[in-house]
Amino acid sequence: MNLCLLLSTLLFAGSIHAAHAATPMKLADYLALSGPAPTAHIPYGEAPSQYAELFLPAGSGPFPVAVLVHGGCWTSKFGGITQLRNMAGALAARGIAVWNVEYRRSDEAGGGYPGTYQDMHAALDLLAAQAGRYPLDLGRLVAVGHSAGGQLVQWMAGRGRIPSGSPLHRAQPSLKVPAVVSLGGLADLRNEASLIKSSCGRDTAELAGSPGPGRPDVFVDTNAAQLMPNGSRTWLVTGELDTISPPRVAHDYAARARKAGDAAEVVILPGASHYDEVAATSHAWPRVVHVIERALGRPQPQDR
């Protein structure tokens, strides 16, 4: 074994050991996360939660764009956009513009079905309109969602397949989402209904509405797992110790995506919890940001 290979092997082994030795983050650690103020705060509707934050890197651009969608079990009880400023600042420091999205949640007026999904449409429409105002390269775009946000970004990727009779149908979506990074995502509303109930206390009706004469199947326009194939590539990144969305969930979703004809890859973060996945201060962050940069097509050290 040559010296360079030996050193690389030892460094990798050391990083894995450090990852296992680190204390996994808990909910209180996640809620304490913060980050820099955004470059701009831009509303896309009249409700208090209908806005996005733009984080621009230093320099002239144009910059690749990461759309961030926070989790919180689809409710306003567990933080959200404020905590993701931690990631947003770290990504901006690496030359990636960030569109950090707030939205009406299931316990807010107008949230749930169809409002939360309409907010995703509106946030992407607004982003598309910003390309002429800010130096954004929307040809290099990834949507990154955590937990419930993982469901929403995977829904974004499939929204072009929503049936025409749905209030969520858009004949020509403003932006195509070619790459998705789901961090501990809970995207399969149909097959993971019991887990979503036990992990988040949410019922299907809160997230997908109730069946009716024109919509007997509530998952036809809400369940990302049914809006495939959509031509996107998904990275499902999950902490080894995630109990909200365990690694099994990522593997099952990836299998469904591949069976439908889409590309999907699972990345398990050693020694990481559900909250390490989104913290730029966590031991898991180097692997998370590596995936995000791969999704944007940025060269990685081993690719050079």
Automatic annotation (TrEMBL):
BD-FAE-like domain location: 55-227
Signal peptide annotation: 1-21
Any one Pfam family match given in the protein's UniProt record, by short name: BD-FAE
Keyword Zinc-finger annotated: no
Keyword line: Hydrolase, Signal
PANTHER family: AB HYDROLASE SUPERFAMILY PROTEIN C4A8.06C, KYNURENINE FORMAMIDASE
UniProt protein name: BD-FAE-like domain-containing protein
Organism: Massilia varians
